[in-house]
Design brief:
The chain is mainly α. It has helices spanning about 20-50, 55-90, 95-130, 135-150, 155-170, 175-195, 205-230, 245-280, 285-295, 300-320, 325-350, 355-360, 365-400, 405-425, 430-455.
């Protein structure tokens, strides 16, 4: 029931009724487009840094994001738990409970970010850079970049939270509009701060970090205004609901923590891979290739797949809330076909235009071009596998099963690839193509195991309910 003088809070009935393909596409295309647009920002940053700072700057940004993503995915675990609850409650039409859950997620993230993760990350940053075999010149560029991201991260994380909440409630277009605004502002700031303009000095790599934190902070203020004027499907809460509700917070962690540990495990696996890349003969060139190809160009696959993952999770969660499990399964299958189509198009670009793609980032060194072309060929296949795996991860999470994706990730990303690379390094010595093949192997395992687990159907029996502690 809406507040006096405001529109009633209603959720989109097309998600739980009518043609399933239309429902999936309605949620998917804004989410995919938003994530692709956001991914383009990273590409622009790397391009500007490549031209104005050089390969050292690209490597610095790449290794810095490996640590920052550990923070993002851990806080994002709270938002995953929030999304599961919001989707299920929205499917059941419980608007007031949706608002309560989102506010409790906000309170929880303030505590986790400000009290634990940011201070710890700033303190551990120098040791981390040494651990991943970053060269001294890369460390010099990376440390201020990384500490800026960590210290001023809350605006970015709040933006992630409200976008996830809106999508879980069935509104994928508002996050798209806000995301485009954030990206445009970030682009303008990056162009000015990286290269300098007039009296504004060139901050280089640090300028990219400044733009990354300023833009979402500004947009977050706009989001708060929209919430306080009841202009969004997610509304503000008042009175007693402003107090911490420990039952809801426990639910957020119960459903979310496994996804947080999954993300951390995945990024730890990536960090270990970077360590192996750093041990190759041409370590600086190989790390720059890894940063550009895997964290930037491959993000065209992962960001679009993550957008589809959110859409699939919402479809599954809301239809389970509406007591329609078969429709939920159909939605997951439809999302997988869309994901494969997008990944196939991107894979064609990787196969046939590698030099042109690498040239965008100012990469012209023959060693870098050879390594990059080789890696992109493997990633063209990995993209197909990862897109399907991410889609079914979203389907499992939408059903409330966040533990299975964690176990799958531990095996396919943290155990197998580093383990195989260690054995190869000890017994044969590492070549770049060995690293690329092992990355592909990890993606294959994750895809197969995710599909098998989803079609076992145990997620249909998971109950998602909340009770107030007041």
């Amino acid at each position: 029931m809406g507040r006096k003088g405001s529109k009633p809070q209603r959720f989109d009935p097309a998600i739980t009724e009518g043609p399933i393909r239309k429902a999936v596409w309605k949620l998917a295309w804004p989410s995919v487009l938003q994530n692709v647009v956001a991914g383009l920002q990273g590409i622009v940053d790397h391009t500007l840094i490549g031209h104005y700072v050089g390969t050292t700057g690209n490597a610095a940004v790449g290794v810095s994001w490996l640590l920052f993503l550990v923070v993002v995915v851990f806080v994002g675990s709270v938002y995953t738990g929030m999304g599961i609850l919001v989707a299920r409650l929205a499917g059941a039409g419980k608007a007031d409970q949706v608002n309560r859950v989102v506010y409790q997620a906000f309170l929880t993230s303030v505590l986790v970010v400000g009290g634990i993760l940011t201070p710890a990350g700033i303190f551990l940053a120098p040791s981390f850079l040494v651990w991943v075999n970053a060269t001294p010149e890369v460390q010099l560029e990376a440390l201020p970049y990384l500490r800026t991201l960590l210290f001023f991260s809350f605006g970015l994380l709040f933006f992630y939270m409200i976008s996830a909440a809106l999508r879980a409630a069935g509104d994928a277009r508002t996050p798209l509009r806000l995301g485009v605004l954030t990206t445009l502002l970030n682009l303008a700031l990056s162009v000015v701060l990286i290269r300098g303009l007039g009296p504004i000095p060139a901050f280089g790599t640090l300028g990219a970090a400044m733009g990354t934190v300023i833009a979402p902070a500004v947009v977050s203020l706009i989001v708060l205004y929209l919430m306080f004027t009841d202009s969004l499907i997610i509304r503000r809460v008042k009175g007693k609901m402003l107090l911490p509700d420990w039952n809801i917070i426990r639910k957020l962690f119960s459903f979310g923590l496994p996804s947080g540990f999954q993300g951390i495990a995945m990024n730890l696996g990536g960090i270990l891979i970077v360590g192996f890349v750093g041990s190759l003969t041409h370590s600086k060139e190989a790390q720059a290739v890894y940063a550009v190809c895997y964290t930037q160009l491959f993000s065209l696959v992962t960001w679009s797949s993550v957008g589809l993952m959110g859409a699939t999770s919402t479809i599954v969660g809301q239809n389970l809330g509406a007591l329609k499990p078969e429709r939920a399964m159909q939605g997951a299958r439809t999302g997988a076909f869309i994901a494969l189509g997008v990944a196939s198009l991107i894979g064609v670009l990787f196969l046939f235009l590698p030099d042109a793609l690498l040239g965008i980032f100012g990469m012209s060194d023959p060693v870098v071009l050879d390594l990059g072309s080789q890696f992109l060929a493997y990633l063209s296949l990995s993209g197909l596998l990862v897109s399907v795996a991410i889609n079914y991860t979203g389907a499992l999470q939408g059903g409330g099963d966040t533990r299975s994706p964690l176990l799958i990730t531990l095996f396919s990303q943290l155990l197998v690839p580093p383990g195989v690379l260690f054995i190869l390094q000890v017994n044969y010595g590492l070549l770049p193509e060995y690293v690329w093949r092992v990355i592909l192997l990890g993606h294959f395992l994750r895809c197969v195991l995710s599909v098998i687990r989803f079609y076992q159907g145990r997620w249909m029996q998971i109950r998602v309910e909340i009770e107030s502690s007041w």
